[in-house]
Amino acid sequence: MLKKFLVLVVFLVSAFVGNAQSSKQEIYINRYKDIAISEMQRAGVPASIKLAQGILESGSGKSTLARKANNHFGMKCGVAWKGKEYYKEDDDYDENGKLIKSCFRVFDSARECYIAHSNFLTDSRKRYRYGFLFDLDPKDYKAWSRGLKKAGYATSPTYAEKLIKVIESYNLDRFDDMTPDDTDNTSVVVQRGFFKVNNVKVVLAKGNETPIDIGIAQDVPTKCILKYNEKIRSSGQTLEKDSRVFLQKKRNSYRGKQKYHAVRKGETLYDISQKYGVSLKKLYKRNRIDKGERPAKGSKIKLRGFKVYKKNKPRIDSTNIEEELKEDFKDNTKKDDEIEFETDETIDMDESEDFDTFENDIEVEEDTPQKNRKVYHVVSRSETLYGIARRYKTTVDAILVLNKMQSSTISIGQRIRVR
């Protein structure tokens, strides 16, 4: 009987301690979540990472440093620090190997400390150490945790695992999609911190978001979002969930060490442009690929440097790329917009013209009513079905049906009906 009583007492004490421990972490989270989210928006450090680091390094705000110096991240003074100082033994030794007190920064508030911590990670002088973190997906807390360990942020060999455990124990990643207002259920537009691809700011679109929503959330003019993103063509366009939206102009070339990209099955040049933050137009030009062509699986796409030699041009996938071209061609014209037909009244059909000129690559069948007039196009050098469709304000689908074509592959001199 006594044994059972002792077991019950131990169980109750353990439960009480566990609840107290959870309560301590939860109090910390509720107190500092808005600051973490605000810093995520300002500097790009995920709120989940910030809160997990604060919990670990400040003992959920109960450490001596946190209480006496508002220092939640164990930030030492360094040579440039001009503020107040707090000394305690840590891991500094004198020339004789004797442990001495280390100098830690004193902040006026926890917010000031959180800001200083973000500035530390984003400091251009430390880009060689922490810069790569901002190329990671801001919602991938595991990659960020391992990245901090890899960068040498902490000496503990299990630092990444500890961060991940804290994040998952308290579901901290939910804050990576929030604004301070969201925690009070008052926000309409969801704002998020950006990350960087090729040193260009990027955000991931949420479901049913439009460029207008992202522009408001990120304080970027909508017209700039349309300019920076090749497949975003209207301010009200509904964006695919988790698609990358660039907030700055893509670079002309990739700034990383990698020079080439090996094409995977089904991958398009646009996919590669999105992955590396390199202008789609520049990728076409650098690799001598015509617009609408898809590089074949296994071919190498040059990401930086001068144009490839003609003999080194990537192999082109000859399979049907109808769906890709159809998606590329989508525009935002109204359904009732009128489309004008090219006729022999506006096009000179002088057959003495050079083969590649615009006047000679269109044929119009006579002796047919105006509404049903058939229009043909003769394929010239370097043309694609996508380009032809766009010229005549039609779609690749429509041309394929008109010509009973099974593939979008075309050849020089081929006569194609476009209307």
Write a brief structural summary.
This protein folds into 4 domains: 160 residues, Lysozyme (Orthogonal Bundle); 52 residues, Membrane-bound Lytic Murein Transglycosylase D, Chain A, CATH 3.10.350; 53 residues, LysM domain (Membrane-bound Lytic Murein Transglycosylase D, Chain A), CATH 3.10.350.10; 96 residues, Membrane-bound Lytic Murein Transglycosylase D, Chain A (Roll), CATH 3.10.350.10.
Strand content: 5-15%
Spatial shape:
elongated
Q: Which structural class should the secondary elements be placed in?
A: alpha+beta
Q: Could you say what the CATH topology of the largest domain is called? A: Lysozyme
Helix content: 25-40%
What can you tell me about this protein's structure?
The structure is a single chain. Helix content is 36%, strand content 10%. A hairpin with a 5-residue loop joins β1 and β2. The strands form four sheets. Strands 3-4-5 form a three-stranded antiparallel beta sheet. The chain has 419 residues and is α+β, with helices and mostly antiparallel strands. α1 (2-43) crosses α4 (110-122) and α6 runs antiparallel to α7.
